[in-house]
Amino acid sequence: RANPFSPLWWRYLLLTGVALGLVLSSKWVGLFAVALVGFYTLAELYEMFCNVHMPVRTYARHWVARIVALIVIPLFIYALTFKMHFAILNRYHNSANFMPVGFQVRLRGNPLARQPYDVQTGSYVRLQSNDPGAGYLHSHDHKYPAGSQRQQITGYGYADQNNFWSISRRMAAGTFKTPDDVSTTAAPIAGPIQDGDLVSMLHNVTNTYLYADFKFTAPMSGKYAEVSAVSVDSDDARSPNMMWVVEIVNPEKRMKDGRIHPLGTPIRLRNLVNGCMLMSTGERLDKDWGWGQSEMACEAASKPGRKHLWTIERHVNKNLKATNMGQHMSSSFLRDFAVLNKHMWLTNNALIPDHDKHNVLESDPVSWPFMVYPMRMVGWDNKSIKYLEIGNPLLWWGSATVCLLFPIQLLYWLVRWQRGSMAHWRAGEFREYIDGAMMLWGGWALHYLPFFLMGRVTYLHHYLPALFFGILLLVYQIYHASIWYLKERGVRRVLYTSVAAVAFVFWWFSPLTYGWDKPITQLKGMQWTSSWPVYEDRFEL
C-alpha cells in the first residue's frame, strides 16, 4: 500500500483477484469473500478520494487497476472453470436435460443426437421450455383442485412418458384467420409442419388435448388463462380452444427453411381463440396436489419472452429416417454458462426446510457459533463406524466469544480515540490494529449473518467459512492482548500454552472425527454439553 503500482503491489493485487476467482469457483459462499474485499476496496478508494493532494489521473489508475484485478480476473477464472467443466464432463446423462439442446446434442452418447429432421403430422414430440428450470410440457391423470378442475398441465424437469405429445397439422398457414374458418372435426393434414400452421397437441398417455380456458386463471399465479387437458371424447375436444398456431422464433442458421425441426427451431404456441401464448409462469404448483411441478398458463403478452418459447427436444416418428442433428446445431458457451448458473440458483433456492417435522441433520444459524448441536454423520448403532461433525470446542467457543464481543470492544476504543486518550499507542499502531481486526470480523459477519435471512435448509457445516475468520480473529486478539500487557517471555508462554491446549482437545475428540467403531459408551468424557448427541440424541425419533 505504501508503494502503489510497484511490481510487488501489482503482484499482491493480482493474486488477490486470482484467489477471489478460485474461492468463487469452489462454492457460491465465496461471494461473501468477494463482498468483503469489495467493501474494503471501496473504503480504500473513498479514503483516496478525500485526499485532495492525489492527482485525478492517479486516482483513476487506482480504479482501473482494481476493476481489472478484482472484478475482471475473478469473473474470467469463474467462467474458465465452467469451460473446463464442460470439456471434461462430456458424456450424456439425463441430469443435463435442463441445459440448452445445442449443448446436449454435443454430449457423447446423447440419444438426441440422432432423430428425424422434419416434424410431421403424427410425430411424437417432447417440448422443453426455454425458461430455465421450467422443464418439459407435461400432463398426468390428476385434476386441478379448483378452477376448471380438468386434468393438469405442468412442467416436469425429468424425462418421462407423460412428456410426449402427438402433434397434428390441422390447417396450413394462410388458410385461416378466425376460429370460424376452422373445422375442429376435419382430418389432420399429412406432411411437414411449417411456420404459421394450425396444430393440435394430443397427450400420448392420457389421450387428451392441450386446451386453453379463458374463464379460469392459472392456480398459483392467478393472472393468466388456465391451460388444461381435455379428453378426445369430450365436447371440449371440438372447441377451437384446443387449436394452436405454431410460430418459429430465431431458428438455427441451418434450419431457416420455414419448417419445424427438433432442437433448432424454438417455437411459440399461440391459441387460436384469443391469441394467448403457452408459457411457463415461473411459479411452482402446490406439493400436495401438483408435486411442486412448474405451473403452465396462457398469456396474451404484447412482448413475448423466453418463458413463451418451446423447443422440440425429442422427436419420434417411425416412418421417418433419423439424421445426425449435430450437423445442424450450434452452441454458445455464454448461453450454456448462464443457463447452468440460473439452474444452480433455482436448485439451491428449492432446498427449503419442512417446518412441520424435525430433521436431525438440519440446524439453525443461532446454534452454530457455540456448536450447540454437532451433527451425526452416520448411524449410531454399536456395529457402525460413528462420525460426529464436531469441531474443536476451544476454537469454536473462543472464536464465537471474541466475534460477539468485538463490536463492544470497537465502540470502547473509538470512544477513547475520540476523547484523545490513546497516548500509549505508537503512531499508526491503532489504525493498523483496527484495520486488521475489522477485516477479520467483517469476514466472520459476512459469512455468518446472511444465513439468518436465507429461506433454504441450513446445516452446521455452513458455518465453517465464518469459523475460519473467527479463528483468525481469536488468534489476532490473543496476540495483540499478549504484546500489550505481557513481556516477551509471557507472550511465548501464551503461545505455547494455547497451541498445547488446542492440540490436546483435538486429540481428545479425534475418535469422533476419524471414526469410532466400538460401542459409544466405551468412549468416555465426550459429553461436554447436554445438547451434544454423543451418547443420546434427544431429537432422534
Kindly describe this structure:
This protein has 541 residues and is α+β, with helices and mostly antiparallel strands. 36% of the residues lie in helices and 17% in strands. It is built from ten helices and 16 strands. The strands form three sheets. Strands 2, 3, 4, 5, 6, 7, 8, 9, 10, 11, 12 and 13 form a twelve-stranded antiparallel beta sheet that branches. The protein is elongated, with a radius of gyration of 31 Å. It starts with 6 loop residues before the first helix and ends in a 27-residue tail after the last helix.
Ordered list of secondary-structure elements with their pairings:
Layout: H1 7-26, H2 30-49, H3 56-88, H4 101-104, E1 114-116, E2 123-129, E3 136-143, E4 151-156, E5 164-171, E6 198-203, E7 208-217, E8 225-231, E9 244-248, E10 267-271, E11 277-284, H5 287-290, E12 294-299, E13 310-316, E14 322-324, H6 333-349, E15 375-376, E16 388-389, H7 393-418, H8 429-448, H9 464-485, H10 488-514
Antiparallel strand pairs: 1-14, 2-5, 2-13, 3-4, 4-8, 4-12, 5-6, 6-7, 6-9, 7-8, 8-12, 9-10, 11-12, 15-16
Helix pairs in contact: 1-2, 1-3, 2-3, 2-8, 7-9, 8-9, 9-10
Structural class: alpha+beta
Helix-strand sequence: HHHHEEEEEEEEEEEHEEEHEEHHHH
- Helix count from the secondary structure assignment: 10
Coarse shape: elongated
What do the pLDDT scores average to? 90
Q: What value does the Rg take, in angstroms?
A: 31 Å
In the predicted model, the low-confidence regions spanning at least 5 consecutive residues are none
Count of DSSP strands? 16
Question: What is the percentage of strand-forming residues?
Answer: 15-25%
What is the straight-line distance between the termini?
A: 57 Å
Which assembly state applies to the chains in this document? single chain
Helix content: 25-40%
Major β-sheet, in short?
12 strands, antiparallel
